[in-house]
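Design review, sub-item: ligand-bound model
Attendees: FS, YL, KQ
YL presented the inputs for the pyridoxal-5'-phosphate complex:
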Amino acid sequence: MSPLRLPDFPWDSLAGHTARAAEHGGGIVDLSVGTPVDPVPDSVREALSSVSEIPGYPTTHGTPALRAAAVEALRRRHGIEGLDPEAVLPTIGSKELVAWLPTLLGAGSGELVVIPELAYPTYEVGALLAGADVLRSDGLTALGPGRAAMIWLNSPSNPTGKVLGVEHLRKVVEWARERGTIVVSDECYLDLAWTSEPVSVLHPSVNGGSLEGLLAVHSLSKSANMASYRAGLVAGDPALVSRLLAVRKHAGMIVPRPVQEAMKAAFGDDKALLAQRERYAARRTVLRTALTDSGFRIDDSEAGLYLWASRDEPADDTVGWFAERGILVAPGTFYGPRGGKHVRVALTATDERVAAAVDRLTAA
Ligand SMILES: Cc1ncc(COP(=O)(O)O)c(C=O)c1O
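KQ shared the predicted structure:
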């Protein structure tokens, strides 16, 4: 057996800073990860338990009602028209799909997977698991004439919060179609926009009304506080989705039936989504002000759950500065070499913890 070439798990390297931050008398404020802290909507919890008596295996494709609810939510919330419910596939959270997609699509040795320069680490992991090569690039010209099997987009971005405009998305889709490259757009922060409106790759203004060669990845972890449920989906090109379905059936990659019911409820509950957005918007406002008052520049951060902050010093020094104040943030280097002078500050802490962070930053 050949050993897997996987990177170290980034958060393990934060142990020293975590210990330092935990020494603070007022307790640690952990803004280093994007894990939800607010309540799971009642509608979701009720739906989960409403089918808990069902003993049989769930279907890999998900219930027709779940897929219809997803299609309807994508239409209502993001103007996505013409998505066939057959071309929607629930996933066990989106991380597993991100990690296995190149393998499931058959991208392997000698093939190229393109990921953003600053990227959620699992895009690289997925390519490595498949034995494919990885290239970090935000531009198309850098890619040269060689064929890429897949290109990942992530708008709004983790970690930067940058939103890609329609023009940019359209160019990537055209470029990819000319070369037979699959475009996979991770849109797990699409519902959480602040200063610009992100657009899905499934929107007709991007794809000209055809979903050929396109996949969008969505998640209910952040928008519906369902990270513990493991609830995501992939949708788009019917031929690609049916390929994924075929492999996932064989491999037992099935979303549990109660979670399917909970997902359906979440896709119908716009009120809960709105309430959650307001919570994050309020935390973002106070954290952003406290950071800029403390001498930080906030770059991008137009949408999503993070503030991308810099004082133009090495990221590890900035993480240390925060840890001295009992606050844990993630160094930009977790997301790629270009993040060397930034830190990522998450909005996912309770109002009480965010207020504690603001007090400590203001006192600094
Ligand atoms: C860009 C991005 N994609 C995917 C995920 C995975 O989310 P989940 O597996 O909870 O759906 C995350 C989680 O932080 C993320 O930031």
